[in-house]
Structures are given as C-alpha cells and as structure tokens.
Amino acid sequence: MTIKVLGYAAQSAEAPLAPFEFTRRDPRPDDVVMEVLYCGVCHSDLHQARSDWSGSVYPMVPGHEVIGRVTAVGKDVTKFKPGDFAGIGCMVDSCRECQPCQHDLEQYCEQGSVLTYNGIDRHDHRPTYGGYSQSIVASQDFVLKVPNGMDLKSAAPLLCAGITTWSPLRHWNVGQGSKVAVVGLGGLGHMALKLANALGAEVTLFTRSADKEADARRLGAHHIVLSTDEAQMSTVKGQFDLIIDTVPYVHDINSYMPTLNLDGTLVFVGYLGDLSPMLNTIPLILGRRSVAGSCIGGIAETQDMLDFCGQHNITADVELINMQEINQAYERMLNSDVKYRFVIDMASLKA
Predict the structure, then answer these.
(1) Which residue ranges of the chain lie beneath pLDDT 70?
(2) Helix pair angle (161-171, 187-198), 10° resolution
(3) pLDDT for 350
(4) pLDDT at site 151
(5) What pTM value is reported for the model?
(6) Can the peptide bond before residue 59 be classed as cis, meaning omega within 30 degrees of 0?
C-alpha cells in the first residue's frame, strides 16, 4: 500500500518552503522504508529549490543527507531489517549496467543517476521526493549502513558533504605524507579538513578570513594561509599534491595554481559554472598541473567513508534546527552563518 507522508516543499522558485502532503510509492521487493530522523541541509537544496541551476521541477521536497530508522523491508531485502539505522545520500538509483555503474561509480551513470529529489524514478516515472519528510523509500542497493555508536544527527552531512570531499581524497591517493590544501571553510571545507587529517596528510587551509585560524586548527588544519596575502601565498609555492576547492560561487583560482607541486591537481567540488577570470594555463604547462572536478561518490565508496568515519570518530559539526526554521536557515546559509551544517530534527515535523 502507498504511504501518505508529510514533508516540506517548494511550490515554485520564488515560494518559501511550506508543509506539503504527498504519497510515497508502494514498496517494491528490494525496497527499504525508513522513518526520517534527521536530514542535513545542503547548499544544493537551496540552489535546487530556487532553480538557480535551472531544471527544477515543482513541487519539490529537498533533502539528500538522510538518516533514519528502517521501519519495513521488501521480501528480497537482505542488507537491512526493521530497527536498523540507515542513511540515504544524493542518489536512489542508476541504470546499474553502464561502465561507471559496473565499477561502483553510480554518480557518473551514463544514463544519469536518479537523484534523491528533483529526479524521476526509472520504474514508475514518478518524481522523487527527498528527506525533508517523515519517511522515504529506496532500493536497498542505495541505502547505507550507519556505523554503531555514530551520532545520528551529526552523521547526516556525511552523506553529501562527507562523500563529496572523501571521493577526491581517495581518487588522488591521499595518505601519510601527502600535502593537501582546502579552499574555503564551510560545510564541505570543514569535512575536507577532518578527513584529510585523518588520512595522514599535512593539511593547509586557504582562507580570506584570519579569524578562522583557531577553528581550522581544531578541525584538522596544520597551517592556515591567507589567500589575499601575496607574501603568504609566495611561501607555499610548489607545495601541494592536491587542492580541494569547496567554494560554491565563482572565484579566481589563478593564485592557487602556482602552489601545486609537479603533477599537482586542483579539484572543484563546490562550484558549478564558468570560470571567471579565465584560467591562465602557464602554471599548468610549466608544472604539468591539472584542474579537475569531482562529484560525490558511489555507494560502495560512500559506505567506505562512513566506516572510516566510524573508526576515527568523525562526524560533521552541526546546528540542529526544527523543520519550521528551514527558510530562515536558507537565508543564514547564504550569509555563511552556520558552523558548519544545518541538520533538521524531523521529529519537529510532527509538532
């Protein structure tokens, strides 16, 4: 039987999020049904709700950092049982047949992965609705196990902010002795500091704000460099194997390129769009340096990240809010007024 659910939805790009009742699909044999306990608030939730990237479909129930309790499972489910704590990240399906999918890279599915919200289900062609809701349904193959003892509310942002920074760290083989820099200290940046440090790297934060030094060191940075100070920038020329750029808006990356070592890479994880000013290729050519991009991670990689975080006692720094505060949280997020991720207590939706 279908499941009636209360959530919060945007009805248009201009409308504030408001209560919205909708119906979840009939659970399929491989489905897991979860009561949503906590849902992280990602910058992309705001962008999608306000159609900043175009392609938004309304009504839209955002939320792709979902932590919940399993309430029911289909007859073919073997990975979960009722009562388990579980998570759902940015995807709920993919074609499962293309080369990326066959190599556990569902986020790069050639047919397009099915997003947790603002997507279209591959089977019934209904819109997908996200975690700003009482419950959610997904195939067990896209549901993640939460390590025992992990703080549930602080685990939610790992499913986007965590995996978005973990995936490039693993792809570029960061480990003991690596030198990693992070641009920007927000939801993504604070996770990049924690994860790079735990992997054994020497970690530097590039920031425009000197007052972030104490927090950056607490989160795992060994060094802080003011990116607006030419003298400080000159002291780190040729140092970094990898720079993870977490800034979500257009910005000049040219000053960072000379700080990469030979074969070093700057990878975008936060910004979608055209570069401005134009990228100067001279530092790339003279140092065989690269500029790259990275998008979340596959399900297996996300589970590896969660297990690593469980072993190293890593979660996000969060501010818990009620569902009714989401519109104010979006405005605060635009002003960088959160350390470092809002998480919605979904129990408030029943109030």
Answers:
(1) 1, 351
(2) 40
(3) 82
(4) 97
(5) 0.95
(6) yes
